[in-house]
Amino acid sequence: MFDTVLFCIKALKRCLLLVLCGDVVGLALAVLNPVLRDQLLDIDTCLRCYERTRITFAKDEVSRKRLLELLERCRTRTELFVESFAVLYGDTDPYLGTRERLNNAVLNALKDLVDDLKDPAKGVEILAKANAVDVSMPWYEFNASSYLDELYRVEVEVRGFDESRLVNAKSVAIVLDNAGEAVLDVAFAMLLAIKGIDVWILTRSQPYEVDVVYDEVVELVKRVGKVLGIDARIRVLGTGSRYQPPAKPYVSSDVIKVMERADLVISKGVGNFKAFLEYRPIDLGKVLFLLKAKCPPMARFLGIEMGRAIASMGIA
After folding, report:
1. Domains in the chain, ordered, with CATH?
2. Using alpha carbons only, what angle is made at residue 191 by residues 190 and 196, rounded to the nearest 5 degrees?
3. pLDDT-based confidence at 119, cuts 50/70/90?
4. CB atoms < 10 A from the CB of 182, how many?
């Protein structure tokens, strides 16, 4: 009886708040889990992003209600966006075709980029700039037609990274992000492996937006090796879930062990960056973060301009 009354009170509260606040963001703010509130870089901006990339795409009122309930239940940004993706799309994979097109486009251009990828310092900068790939956001729109040109135009801010950290590493774990750029990540991994470095590639196992998944990466290793004309021994490990590798409570313990044992962990993209901050599965001092600032709060947090790329050893 008490549970029923409590449920009705919460439902009434949501209805009243929606009327009083006049918009979804106002309601979201009112019911937001306090732990999640502390995790968001900018509450208003992050909630508007959630509204435009998740709530707007709700198929019906049931889905919309579930998306709003996640704001009360979830304790991290990572959990909120992964679980809301599952609510919207279930077992379907709406970005499968997009990922295939991105991978094919970069594979076709890979030979022109190999020389830069062979150089550790240049290679790291290329991988940081390559993080331009992503789904549409309120403050960022990926331009596929100019993507490859941007690899030479966009500036990279390098913080605390010395190439000797990479050259002298005996083992490296690379945490993947989006399709397209993953081709370059795999090529870089193979070029490290032929130098005798033990290389692991870590990735999601189940679909999430345009992030590559395990099966795709296994195939990319074969295709990239064919383009490069090399047969390097690299190991690919999936998280066993829809979550990214740093999300410790939701991924295989083997993924965490690989990162713990690696001399250097290379983390691609904003999603992995945030998950490392939220879950801190390993010492962040040995993580090289390669990403592009795609929203104002992230740009402010990193202290760089919107659209600029950064290569940061740990978090300054």
Report:
1. 2-89 (no CATH), 96-313 (3.40.50.10880)
2. 90
3. very high
4. 29
